[in-house]
Amino acid sequence: MAKWNPLALKLLMWLMGVLIVAGSAFPTWIPFDTWFGITASVAGVAFGAGIMIAGFDPIGNVSWVRAVILYAILQVIYQIFLQISIGRFDFEAFLVAIIVGGLLLWLYPNKAELWMQGKGADMGSGVARSKS
Length: 132
Fold this sequence. Notes:
It is a single chain. This protein is mainly α. The chain has one domain (2-26, 41-114). 64% of the residues lie in helices and 0% in strands. The chain has helices at residues 5-24, 32-35, 40-54, 62-86, 91-107, 111-114. α1 packs antiparallel against α5. The mean pLDDT is 81.
């Protein structure tokens, strides 16, 4: 199973990037983003594209893996908040965040670099380079 982990990590990063790009390509029903001079859907497309590109070498692009894990955590918190505050809960988004976040934590080969605790760990330095 361990020999498939690098491929699974790449595919998971790429899939999450595609999901974020596709999910961000549609306008929201309240345009908060444009009121502040930005467009959330464009930002989402850029974020998703960055994740897809990083998916070719996730070990060398550890900051992007961290960003997806952060996104998954924020998505879970957001869905819980929505359920408590207005009674709306997107089960699919919640489930995808749990699964993707958990799989990234499980598949990433160098946990110390992921959490910036290892020797030589630097923000996005990619100390542990991919062997593919």
